[in-house]
Write a structure and sequence with these properties.
The protein contains 13 helices and 17 strands. By secondary structure, the protein is an alpha/beta fold. The chain has one domain.
């Protein structure tokens, strides 16, 4: 294991929120360790930031500034297979044609990380870049926007094995947010592996059994996989068979999870999204979390929506048409999702964090035959994270955020720690975001051996180069949360006092 401890997170802060626009996003200067020859005619701030991140992490310090510098050799070994997992949720932002830049991981970040991975794995290694975007997204359009084909072709011309894979089983066409066409996709070459976490699941003993809602109109599918003590997931084989998962998430707020970074990013390694519970139908007093206070109006909408979804699913052409008409008529009456809480899009969602942490458990402990490793720390799969926050997203994330020109990358070898740093530096209280706080509390198949208050930052930004809890609230970004989370996760004066008191015993970096 590297000299970079699990409780250490690198927070690199550059200037502005711009990216190179010239695939394959080669560096604008020939660094001493750069061996590929090709350079870009325009600045590439992401490459400079990734390089700065790895240097600030203290990786291979003896060789920095020389052709021998190989920062990831402490983490990744020659001949290994590395899965690069970006955030490729959707190619379109509803209000900004250029909004994809603060919705999905930028290609220039992907390229810079891949260069250093190649330095570590050498010519006998392999990189797989894969994701399962939202089902109504276009993988080919995103590949074009991100320059993935150009990156792939650049490496292949040098003799390297670089694969780009869409992990979905289907791609949908939607009109007015209604599915009107479903196309089967070719199976991914690594197949999929089914896991049943059973009592090791974060859903064990949860009251929502039988009332989960997944990613499709037929809720029966997700409930069959999460009932009678079963908690089943279908995960892409490449995420289990690879030696290393290197997550490259986007730094954004999220309507169901509060924030999305590395822990949420693993939703993209599943092989069937309708095995994934996203929220639990019903009122909170009955174990549901779809709405904080489902009044008559909300209950009426829910019953009507369920009937229309069923019609849309069962009857081709006519069903989707009726569904579109119903949505257009219902929006003025029941409210737009971009301004109205529904479907678990609020701070009380008690479902999605459980699903996300289950997927993280599977990636950490899963074997290719569907069994699970023992829980000794050294047996976890290596899972590293570099978060693209050069241009981040706040507000109505993950698909309709506003941009934040943060100029930040966050890097670490422990996903929960990186996500806690993301939450804190966004101006949020990690303790009040379940996907973050609960990641440090898993009893079965644990994901952490320390608490989030033990995290230490390394940074080129003086105000951040200290234990996380000692970073003053005034030195964080104060992202606007999604409206369903507003007023519930932001840092406060009381929060700052409490974390400083709790962090008094944390050693200086």
């Amino acid at each position: 294991m590297s000299g970079l401890l699990e409780n250490t997170v690198v927070a690199w802060r550059g200037v502005g929120g711009e990216y190179s626009r010239l695939p394959p996003f080669s560096p604008s200067q020939c660094y001493p360790e750069y061996t590929f020859g090709d350079t870009s005619s325009e600045p590439n701030p992401a490459y400079e930031s990734v390089r700065g991140c790895f240097h600030t992490a203290g990786l291979d310090p003896a060789h920095f500034g020389t052709p021998e510098w190989n920062p990831l050799q402490e983490l990744i070994h020659p001949g290994e297979t590395v899965l690069l997992k970006p955030n490729m949720v959707h190619q379109r932002h509803p209000r900004d044609p250029e909004g994809w830049r603060y919705v999905i991981t930028h290609g220039s970040v992907i390229r810079a990380v891949a260069d250093y991975v190649w330095k570590a794995v050498g010519p006998t290694g392999k990189i797989i870049l894969a994701d399962a975007p939202q089902t109504d997204a276009s993988f080919s359009e995103m590949s074009c926007l991100l320059g993935l084909d150009a990156i792939r072709d650049f490496y292949r011309a040098l003799g390297f094995c670089f694969e780009v894979i869409d992990l979905r089983q289907e791609e949908w066409t939607t009109r007015g947010d209604v599915v009107v066409e479903r196309r089967k996709l070719a199976p991914n070459p690594y197949g999929s592996v089914a896991f049943d976490l059973g009592q090791a699941s974060e859903f064990a003993d949860h009251r929502g059994a039988g009332h989960y809602y997944g990613a499709d109109y037929d809720a029966g599918v997700v409930n069959r996989h999460h009932s009678e003590g079963r908690h089943e997931y279908l995960v892409a084989g490449c995420a289990i068979q690879c030696d290393v998962v290197f997550s490259l998430p986007k730094w954004k707020t999220h309507k169901k999870a509060g924030i999305t970074a590395s822990l949420k990013n693993l939703v993209g390694v599943n092989a069937d999204k309708n095995w994934l519970p996203h929220h639990t139908e019903g009122a909170p007093r009955l174990g549901g979390d779809e709405h904080p206070n489902p009044d008559l109006k909300h209950r009426t909408e829910r019953k009507m929506a369920a009937a229309i979804r069923g019609l849309s699913h069962r009857i081709p052409v006519v069903g989707p048409w009726v569904h579109q008409v119903a949505r257009s008529v219902g929006k003025p009456v029941f409210g737009d999702t971009e301004s109205t809480v529904r479907s678990g899009n609020w701070f009380g969602n008690d479902t999605i964090w459980r699903m996300c942490l289950d997927l993280n458990k599977i990636v950490s402990y899963g074997n290719a035959d569907g069994s699970l490793r023992d829980t000794q720390q050294q047996n976890r799969k290596r899972h590293y994270v570099l978060v693209d926050g050069i241009l981040a997203g706040e507000g109505r994330g993950p698909l309709n955020p506003d941009p934040v020109s943060a100029g930040v990358l966050l890097f670490g070898v422990h996903p929960p720690s990186v996500d806690a740093a993301c939450a804190y530096l966004a101006g949020f209280d990690p303790e009040r975001i379940p996907i973050v706080s609960r990641a440090f509390q898993c009893r079965n198949l644990p994901l952490s051996d320390h608490g989030w208050r033990d995290i230490v930052l390394r940074s080129n930004h003086a105000a951040w180069n200290r234990p996380l809890v000692e970073v003053a609230s005034r030195d964080t970004f104060h992202f606007a949360p999604h409206f369903g989370w507003k007023g519930h996760i932001e840092q406060s004066a009381e929060f700052e006092t409490s974390v400083l008191k709790a962090g008094e015993a944390v050693p200086q970096p």
